[in-house]
Design a protein that fits this description.
Layout lengths: L9 H15 L5 H8 L3 H13 L3 E5 L9 E5 L1 H30 L29 H11 L3 E4 L2 H11 L8 E2 L2 H10 L14 E3 L1 H5 L6 E5 L5 E6 L2 E3 L3 H9 L7 H8 L4 E9 L15 H11 L4 E6 L5 H14 L2 E6 L11 H11 L8 E3 L11 H13 L4 E4 L20 H13 L2 E4 L3 E4 L4 E4 L11 E2 L3 H10 L10 H10 L8 E6 L6 H15 L4 E5 H7 L8 H20 L3 E5 L5 H11 L4 E7 L3 H7 L4 H6 L21 E3 L6 H14 L6
Parallel strand pairs: 3-6, 10-11, 10-13, 11-12, 13-14, 18-20, 18-21, 19-20, 21-22
Antiparallel strand pairs: 1-2, 4-9, 5-9, 6-7, 7-9, 8-9, 15-16, 15-17
Length: about 700
């Protein structure tokens, strides 16, 4: 932005002062407001009328005998967005004025440039950053007015995004991306004004909801309990090319990537964009003392005099190797340490954040006093590898950090559909290094730490010169999970006893955990018969409660109002999955036997259940011809005659499971034998004892 672009006119200056004052003191008498703004009463009234005509300010009557104090003012969503715009313009103007004054007095230039184009290292990492909240009084008025607005109930991921938009964690974003900003971010990691931003932050909604909204309309954004968190002025509405987004942002349009699967199978079809006005932050009842906004962390660092802060991003429990890694990173950077774990949404199957935070708290006292702190980040991760690393860096810069540890295969989602890693091990570090100056935060390379038995210490693997003469020990994540599942010893050189204790609370031996057996196959394939036989055998063994969620039983008792459209069949399976996840979470065994024809829905159920225990998919692979030959209910005959629409295998597709835990044939095979095959599989997985 050139110096002339930063110029703020006298009219804009007066409007800026008025909007700021009304936000601070909406109920003040006009005379007091005029004095605070520095205007005559006549000019103030004219300015107020213009602001009201433009939709920037709302006026309300207050009871009282003094006519001069009857009016109360509140900024509209549009007014709050305009105040934020003018704030940026005002700051840029002051910066340009200071630059000119310094040059006049000293004959030299400082080298500062206007706000929009300068990088954050030129700014104090401890100074407050912009938030999108209005004042408390304005928020109370907006809550009342928002009752008449069209409401959108946010998904858990959207709530995470909204919180970081409002508190400045996603600075410089002022709301959900416009179409122009979205296209720039997808194609080249830049907003329309050229600023670096690698991740699309979009409000995805259904087609029906999008069609009910007009451009320029304000909507209320609410959490899942109906509490209003913000309002949004809808400036853009479009249908994105999701395959293009997947290719550019995540590197491949492959449903094996959790974010791509979310994009295609869970996210709404239409995106809405526009500025938001924050009313209140989402309520968190857990670990409230550990949750800090960017400005709260900056104030904490400022109070303690921490000028350099290195952030450690983690979504896993901390073990001894992580402690040594963070020690070294802080020492190399000569910085204090912020342990900044993600507690929003991580990769399906990760340890739940309640357990992880207890693990973090258990090892905090292992760090030197007054050098380390921990704060929780309510971020919805995308597992986008290189782009995610840059994104994490920008977020940590907003939280006041000066250094950031970037790991090997940082935020990688694992294997793609071909069994290969989505990203190279150092792609994230390379992309971060390329943009490091612009991010405004310095990268600290992740060191792969291993335990050297002879020296009884952790060392970076690539710095060990005498590898042939020493014993190098390490335990992979897979091996750790196996040891936890089977109740095997976890050595103290690998992890802290306090951490292992917390993990064992959540992960008892696998033979005592809850799990779900999920049968899928054509109607008449034998799913229900085998499921009943399996239930009896498991009940005979005892030890855990067993619940059968058969397709017909669920239809009668849980989904009686649903039809057989794809939407309703998906909803029915998701209901079954939810009930099964609750059974599994509480240590029971759930046996499900629906048709479940769609792979994406089965994957959704798997991810929901695997948060709490094992998911065992059993494909009852009876051919459609054999099912039709059995046809005890006459359903196939009715489907052939067109009397049953969208019948699986006849007029609607069935996605054959690609990698089920078990596939059983039922033709010319006894039911008892099929159920026994399932028992043997459960035994081999350690879910039941021999």
């Amino acid at each position: 932005m050139a110096e002339t672009e930063a110029h703020i006119s006298s009219e804009e200056d007066q409007l800026f002062r008025l909007l700021r004052q009304l936000d601070i003191a909406p109920d003040a008498p006009q005379r007091a407001t005029a004095e605070a703004v520095g205007l005559s009463l006549g000019r103030l009234n004219a300015l107020l009328r213009d602001a009201i005509d433009q939709g920037l300010v709302r006026i309300a009557q207050r009871p009282g005998s003094d006519k001069r104090q009857r009016n109360s003012y509140a900024l509209t969503t549009k007014g709050a967005a305009e105040k934020n715009r003018l704030t940026d313009l005002f700051l840029a103007q002051k910066l340009a004025d200071f630059e000119a004054l310094h040059a006049e007095l000293t004959g030299t230039k400082i080298g500062l440039v206007p706000l929009k184009s300068r990088t954050e290292p030129m700014q104090n990492n401890l100074a407050p950053i912009p938030e999108l909240y209005v004042s408390y009084d304005s928020a109370q008025k907006l809550k009342v007015e928002a009752a008449d607005l069209t409401s959108h109930d946010l998904t858990p991921r959207q709530i995470c995004d909204l919180e970081l938009l409002m508190n400045g964690g996603f600075n410089p974003l002022k709301g959900f991306l416009s179409e122009e900003d979205y296209n720039g971010v997808v194609e080249n990691m830049r907003l329309a004004d050229g600023q670096l931003w690698p991740m699309p932050i979009t409000l995805d909604v259904s087609e029906d909801f999008a069609q009910s909204i007009e451009i320029g309309q304000d909507i209320a954004l609410r959490d899942q309990e109906g509490v209003i968190l913000a309002t949004m002025t809808v400036t853009d509405r479009w249908e994105p090319n999701k395959s293009r987004e997947a290719e550019k942002v995540f590197g491949a349009d492959d449903d094996a990537h959790p974010a791509v699967n979310y994009l295609h199978n869970q996210a709404g079809k239409i995106y809405l964009g526009g500025p938001i006005t924050g009313i209140q932050q989402p309520v968190h009842y857990d670990f409230r003392g550990r949750r800090d906004t960017p400005n709260e962390l900056r104030a904490y660092f400022r109070k303690l005099g921490w000028r350099k802060v290195v952030a450690f991003q983690t979504r896993n429990p901390l073990h001894r190797a992580h402690q040594e890694l963070t020690f070294r990173a802080a020492r190399e950077a000569q910085a204090n340490l912020l342990i900044h774990p993600v507690v929003g949404m991580t990769k399906p199957g990760d340890v739940d954040h309640f357990t992880r935070v207890r693990c973090y708290e258990a090892v905090l006292d292992k760090y030197p006093a007054a050098t380390t702190t921990m704060s929780l980040l309510n971020l919805a991760m995308r597992m986008a590898g290189p782009r995610e690393a840059v994104w994490h860096g920008l977020i940590r810069k907003n939280h006041g950090c000066t250094h950031f540890i970037v790991g090997r295969d940082h935020a990688g989602p694992g294997k793609n559909s071909a069994g290969e890693d989505f990203y190279g091990p150092y792609d994230a570090q390379d992309l971060f290094r390329e943009h490091q100056d612009e991010i405004g935060i310095e990268m600290v390379d992740f060191k792969h730490m291993v335990y050297v038995q002879e020296r009884a210490q952790y060392e970076p693997n690539d710095e060990i010169k005498d590898k042939d003469d020493v014993t190098i020990l390490n335990i992979s994540g897979t091996e750790l999970r196996r040891r936890l599942a089977e109740g095997l010893e976890i050595p103290e050189w690998f992890s802290f006893p306090e951490v292992v204790k917390e993990l064992r609370k959540t992960k008892p031996p696998r033979s005592k955990q809850g799990f779900t057996v999920f049968f899928t196959g054509f109607s008449g394939s034998g799913k229900s018969t085998i499921a009943n036989a399996l239930m009896v055998k498991l009940m005979e063994m005892g030890g855990r409660p067993v619940t059968l969620l058969d397709g017909d039983i669920v239809r009668k008792n849980l989904s009686s109002e649903l039809g057989f459209s794809k939407e309703h069949r998906d909803l029915n399976i998701k209901r079954i999955g939810y009930v099964a996840s609750e059974i599994t979470k509480n240590g029971g065994i759930a046996i499900c036997a629906p048709i479940a024809p769609y792979a994406s829905t089965r994957r959704h159920v798997r991810e929901e259940i695997e948060q709490f225990g094992a998911f065992v998919e059993v494909h009852v692979a009876t051919s459609i011809e054999e099912c039709e030959r059995r046809d005890r209910k006459g359903l196939y005959k009715l489907a052939r005659e067109g009397k049953i629409k969208e019948f699986t295998g006849i007029s609607d597709p069935y996605d054959v499971p690609v990698n089920p835990e078990l596939s059983v044939e039922t033709e010319n095979v006894e039911v008892d034998n099929c159920a026994h095959q399932v028992l043997l599989k459960l035994e081999s997985m350690g879910l039941i004892k021999a």
